[in-house]
Amino acid sequence: xxxxxxxxxxxxxxxxxxxxLLLFLVGCSESLSLDSESLGxxxxxxSEYFISPEICKDDVGPDCTKLRLGDSQLTTLAPEQGxxxxxxxxxxxxxxxxxDKITWIDNASGTWNMLAKPxxxxxxxxxxxxxxxxxxxxxxxxxxGNNLPVDGKIGDWPMTRYPALTAIDRNPGIPAANxxxxxxxxxxxxxxxxxxxxxxxxxxxxxxxxxxxxxxxRGNDAVAHEIVDIYGGHPAxxxxxxxxxxxxxDKVPALxxxxxxxxxxxxxxxxxxxxxxxxxxxxxxQDLDECHGHSHSPMGYHYHSTIEYPYxxxxxxxxPMASASAVSPRRRIHPRADAPLSGVxxxxxxxxxxxxxxxEANVRFIQGMAVHHAQALEMTELVRKYASTEAVRQxxxxxxxxQRHEVGLMEAWLSNNGEPLRMxxxxxxxxxxxxxxxxxxxxxxxxxxxxxxxKLFLEFMIEHHLGANEMVANLSSDSGVEKTSTVFQFAEExxxxxxxxxxxxxxxxxxxx
Length: 513
Ligand SMILES: [Zn+2]
Ligand SMILES: [Zn+2]
Known about the structure:
The longest helix has 28 residues, at 450-477. This protein has an eight-stranded mixed beta sheet, with no helix packed on it. It has a four-stranded antiparallel beta sheet with strand order 6-7-8-17, with helices on one face. The protein has a three-stranded antiparallel beta sheet with strand order 1-5-4, with no helix packed on it. The protein has 513 residues and is an alpha+beta fold. The protein has two domains: 2-22 and 339-512, Ferritin (Up-down Bundle), CATH 1.20.1260.10; 53-304, no CATH class. The chain has helices spanning 2-9, 163-166, 222-225, 341-344, 360-386, 390-416, 439-447, 450-477, 486-512; strands spanning 67-68, 74-75, 84-85, 105-106, 111-112, 132-137, 140-145, 179-185, 201-205, 210-212, 233-236, 239-242, 262-266, 271-273, 293-296, 300-304, 323-326. The chain is built from nine helices and 17 strands. It binds zinc ion (2 copies). One zinc ion binds at residues 28, 30, 212, 222, 226, 234, 236, 241, 243.
């Protein structure tokens, strides 16, 4: 979808985005569809890669040796208990495990044996520290993280070091830090008609790793088919994710009777809890509704994990929000600060008089961002005239207010510091900053009408915001910039705000399409 945005936006500048949008359509494209004839045979002894989960050691809950295979449990028609209500059927041509080499699935009985399935062991692989943050502000909750496990538990990727496993599943992915953030309703409502679940992230764990739904790109049971590490995750390229809840995350009960604790949040804002319900009893699908949740005090509606398909959720009981992903190896997660923007870059601030290192980079950044914002205001001006979707008008109004305010702050800062308000022209032209529309694109937008205008505005403005985020990333990576400077803090807060606006715009765009 990013490609789509870029192509439509004609964004062909030499700059490489540090930010990419998280796509709902990514799915599990973690394996290459190469011919695996040349690799080892399926009859290899895999017992050294078996695991013995605690959850499989008693008679309560599903039998781990005869788990119901979910391959035929995907439906696109309506929510149904024990099934995944998916937005689209699987693509049989998508990459995945080699069926002929899978020994732990019994197709005749439609079951699979978790205790006879290989898992990638631990080893020397170390992708860096995981991070995760949950913040609440007003009516929203934001959960973000760098998608690496906070508890540091990750297998020995890439799997290509293990020929016996690669012979079955040729996933060449290597997990790396990728920032994800989900803006959620703090107090979500249950809706009458639950919605379908698409491929890609459905939520995020408190362990900092995103959750995907139960299926792989083919629409098959991902937990049964795909090889994950002994800690429960695997990468789609560099995006590490869980298709089920690793049992170690279900450690601290939420209630004194043993009811599991919170594992993370789903995109509709409802919490996902562990394996045990009231009385500490392990749950099965029969205990849960068609979305894989239930409602009881004191937590109200919530989802539960099970060791059987669909593992996490079957549908969205609430309204799923879009997700945005900011990917940059050098950037840290910056939870939203409560202080309003104006508290950070006050118009009376003068870096030089405050004795903070006053850098050329700051001036360039502020001058550039002022130009960037000016164009955003031109775009929102068009919304006043031509938008037909109320949600588009609303978000444009919000942007207009925020960006006007920021432009005022930036101009005051420049004048207080004795700097010109405008960037020097290059060959008589204003320079075009990352994500800015070319004159041709601006022209296209100004002649678009109706829903066509709304979509084009959203796509262009998402690009525009991503460009601003990239400018912030460049500022952050500039070693000359004081991380404590007001400009830097202003930039980081603006960055967080714009990342949230990107999520909102994605959600609106999804609604229009
Ligand atoms: Zn996967
Ligand atoms: Zn419960």
